[in-house]
Amino acid sequence: MSVIFVRAVFDGDLMVRLIPIDDADSLAVVAEMIAHQAVGVMVPPQDRPIEVWHDENRLDPKETVQSTGIGPMDILRVAYA
């Protein structure tokens, strides 16, 4: 378990944020951490699942950060499905 920092943006938000994530976290947890910064503040809440994208690939929410190859300062895009 180690903490890395990634750059993250939620679709519809103008801010790119620096987010600390644990490499043992699931992508579902990471999506919620990123959404917490934007949904209800810059992006209206919606009753839809949230997806994480990395290098133009949608990631499985059950996978861990470490298993996907996400590294320090990578850019993650989070969006409603």
What is the strand and helix layout of this fold?
Blueprint: E1 3-10, E2 17-22, H1 27-38, E3 50-54, E4 57-59, H2 65-68, E5 75-80
Parallel strand pairs: 1-5
Antiparallel strand pairs: 1-2, 3-4, 3-5
H/E order of the elements? EEHEEHE
Strand content: 25-35%
- What is the C-level CATH assignment? Alpha Beta
- CATH topology annotation: Ubiquitin-like (UB roll)
- Mass-distribution shape: globular
What is the total tally of β strands?
A: 5
For the largest beta-sheet, the strand count, sense and barrel status come to: 5 strands, mixed
Order of strands across the main sheet: 2-1-5-3-4
CATH architecture assignment: Roll
What structural class results from the helix and strand content? alpha+beta
